[in-house]
Write a structure and sequence with these properties.
Distance between the termini of chain A: 72 Å
Oligomer: homodimer
Largest interface: A-B, 40 and 40 residues
Strand content of chain A: 15-25%
CATH superfamily of one domain in chain A: Response regulator
Shape of chain A: elongated
CATH class of one domain in chain A: Alpha Beta
Largest sheet of chain A: 6 strands, parallel
Strand order of the largest sheet of chain A: 2-1-3-4-5-11
Radius of gyration of chain A: 26 Å
Number of helices of chain A: 13
Chain lengths: 339, 339
DNA sequence: CACATTTCCAAAAACGTTTTCGGAAACGCG
DNA sequence: CGCGTTTCCGAAAACGTTTTTGGAAATGTG
């Protein structure tokens, strides 16, 4: 079996408390005994039991990534993975214990955020995938445990948010389309009341108004962010408003852009020759589609890293809860043609 | 703060042991007191601290997914995510506590598998991403904790392996190409000595020999499973052996297929009209490329689910360690043309 | 009714750590 | 040398559970 602190203590001829002090680099121990204990520990291949450590210790070095709806949507694999990579990167660099938990709307009602933290003895979490109707909104706000949400504004004393300036980013994306000469632009939108939808819509409108452009009601196509919906809805749009002279589709996500392109191709059009299309998110598929999709990269891995960073600082009392707005970048590829 | 078992005991007027018995549905407690305790617990919103539970309890209900090299390669996001989804699915259905750990070749030397399990009090793990030179090979074999590897044969009393019949699958894929009339087929291969490469090579050769086909040395293109390598190597191949009359590229992974298609397009060829290409893995990008790529789907999510399942059964003593071969399926799409 | 058995529960040990408390030894200073 | 500090470390409490042990009460049996 694996050696415990008791075994090390016995072997080194000291008490367990002393071994603990040696292992944790405390001050009230002589250099000589520390050396000796460390040596013995190494020889015995001793590793502290993190569970016991976590139970006993006052301040926990464990954080978590909480993914809501992970098991439900098949779409955004990249997003979650890249986010986690960022978080894990930070955790490893700072020797934090990190784990991942999956929740959904149902489990959110059964167990508060604070309870989840308590159950697993974690100091805080980076939370991704919350819908704005989710019970966790209240749960987080009321919680004493710090947390960092991604792309969703919660409020509360202990909750930070890491996001991009989606309004500005979408404005920029729209402006790019306009700069390429597009004047009649259809908007492929996400769920009507989702926070991200609202922000991106605002960005689009800002750019259009600034350039004296109109966005007729019939030109906005609503979906639930699902590729297949974009596919069928755009197909319908082409049938109904094909003669309206639209030259470009401004999509609120990359998956919607992919669906849009599929619909266009199916209807016999070429992208970008007949219609231009842009996406939003910067998931890696956009590099491999035909044509490669012009999009806004959210740098999701950095977001994960910075979220973990901020969480850590909140836990350690280095930084207070705050909102962090990370830079985005317009990625120009092949799905837009100058007209 | 959150209620502990002590608080519940006090509130219900019983001892902590009794509360524990009530919560865990043990037999030696009267139905009446159980009811009462459960009620009190519910009212107080009591949730057992899983860390304490895990420390105290003899048999742990925690399993883990261990990802090796997670932070290194940017390529196979899908793979890991889908695998995890499968594992988490099983865990949630069976009320297991599941967590995820990231290791790499370096951390493998520092800490054995058994130590990692001990540190986190986990009963066993599903392990993905091991390279055949990794230190964990020995570590797993010597370990007392059960584990399930994915796609990699380790050996040892407590280690199972969940995989596909890659030889048969690649044979099938090759046969499909042959059935479509292709006789001169180039092979875009992965790392020379990797287990998966060897198996897939064998499958390809089986099909070719059976059909009386040859595979000249110059027609096998080696890569490290990286898309960009496929891109450049195939480009080189076209320059050097463009006149050899090759009509199809048999790729050992989907990413290689994507790279191959890019190279072909860059060189002015159309897929599948000028050259046919097939991939292997079934990652979701292949559905969105142009053309959509014909491939072999490994059903990675099922693999995750079954791996967790087998792990659980090993822990509970229901099934012994064993190798599980899951079905694959040929997914015919648009990247192959009949010649 | 006496005794054996069963049912139920309280008390306490155990899990492997950290942390607090207190005291012995070493040291410094007059 | 005596006394106050400081340095170092052992003992024990604490973290929140589960599990073992033992015994009182309830039940069954003759």
């Amino acid at each position: 079996m694996t050696a415990t602190i008791q075994d090390v203590a016995r072997a080194a001829g000291v008490s367990v408390g002393t071994v603990s002090r040696a292992m944790n680099d405390y001050s009230d121990i002589s250099a000589k005994t520390r050396e000796r204990i460390l040596e013995v520990a190494k020889e015995m291949n001793y590793r502290p039991n993190l569970v016991a450590k976590s139970l006993s210790s006052k301040h926990s070095r464990s954080i978590a990534v909480i993914l809501s709806g992970f098991l439900e949507d098949v779409m955004f694999n990249d997003f979650e993975t890249m986010l986690m990579k960022g978080c894990y990167q930070f955790a490893i660099e700072h020797d934090l214990d990190i784990s991942m938990y999956v929740i959904n709307t149902k489990t959110q009602t059964e167990k508060s955020y604070e309870q989840l933290c308590y159950e697993h003895n974690i100091a805080g979490a980076v939370i991704f995938g919350l819908k704005n109707t989710d019970p966790y909104f209240k749960s987080l706000e009321e919680s004493n445990k710090p947390c960092v949400t991604i792309d969703v504004e919660v409020g509360g004393e202990n909750v930070s948010n890491v996001t991009n300036d989606h309004v500005a980013a979408f404005d920029e994306l729209t402006q790019y389309l306009i700069d390429q000469g597009h004047k009649r632009i259809a908007l492929v939108s996400g769920r009507k009341n989702a926070a991200v939808t609202v922000q991106r819509f605002e960005g689009a409108m800002n750019a259009m108004k600034r350039n004296g452009l109109e966005l007729p009601k019939e030109w906005v196509i609503y979906t639930n962010f699902l590729k297949d919906e974009a596919d069928s809805e755009v197909e319908k749009f082409l049938k109904e408003h094909g003669e309206a002279g639209v030259t470009a589709f401004l999509c609120m996500s990359d998956m919607l852009a992919i669906g849009t392109i599929e619909a266009l191709k199916k209807s016999g059009y070429r992208v970008p020759d007949d219609y231009s299309v842009v996406g939003y998110d910067g998931i890696y598929v956009t590099e491999h589609t035909d044509p490669k999709i012009t999009t806004v990269d959210q740098n999701i891995k950095d977001k994960g890293y910075e979220a973990a960073h901020l969480l850590y600082d909140m836990i350690e009392g280095i930084r207070p809860a705050q909102d962090l707005i990370l830079p985005h970048s317009l990625v120009i590829r092949d799905s837009v043609k100058k007209v």
